[in-house]
Amino acid sequence: METLQFRFASRPGVRPADPALCGVVGSGNLEILVQPGAQADHCEVNIKTSARGFATTWQAVIGDFAASHPAGGTAIAINDMGATPAVVTLRLAQALAEYQGGAR
């Protein structure tokens, strides 16, 4: 397992009281937990992945997500078992929408 940590500037989003969990860790998939973070204008991301050596890819995928979604004020935990970048982006969008109370 490899652990990666990133912090990205992101516009603030809705901040509900309850964390949101999306996805299931399994072969080729991942789970994402979104909960309140420390700073309203940043999202903090902690990734545990079985696929070693993809830090640059993770940074690009999460960075693009943070730039295009209101993820500021969140702390995101990802447990990955080899999901593709497209699946990561989809699950991130689903988890953030659930966290913010529904699709935006």
Provide a compact summary of the structure.
It is found in: Cytoplasm. Helix content is 28%, strand content 33%.
**Strand content bin:** 25-35%
Strand order of the largest sheet: 1-4-5-3-2
Measured on Cα atoms, how large is the radius of gyration?
Answer: 12 Å
Number of strands: 5
Whole-number average pLDDT? 91
Helix content: 25-40%
Unreliable segments of 5+ consecutive residues: none
Whole-number tally of structural domains: 1
Major sheet size, sense and barrel closure: 5 strands, mixed
Structural class by SSE content:
alpha+beta
Shape annotation: globular
Counted by DSSP, the helix tally is 2
Terminal-residue CA separation: 34 Å
Q: What's the helix-strand series?
A: EEEEHEH
List keywords for this structure.
alpha+beta, 2 helices, Mal_deCO2ase/Cit_lyase_ACP, globular
What features would you describe in this structure?
The chain is of the alpha+beta class and 104 residues long. The protein has one domain (2-99). It is built from 2 helices and 5 strands. It has helices at 55-68, 85-99; strands at residues 2-9, 20-23, 30-36, 42-49, 74-80. It has a 5-stranded mixed sheet, covered by helices on one side. It starts with a strand and ends in a 5-residue tail after the last helix. It is found in: Cytoplasm.
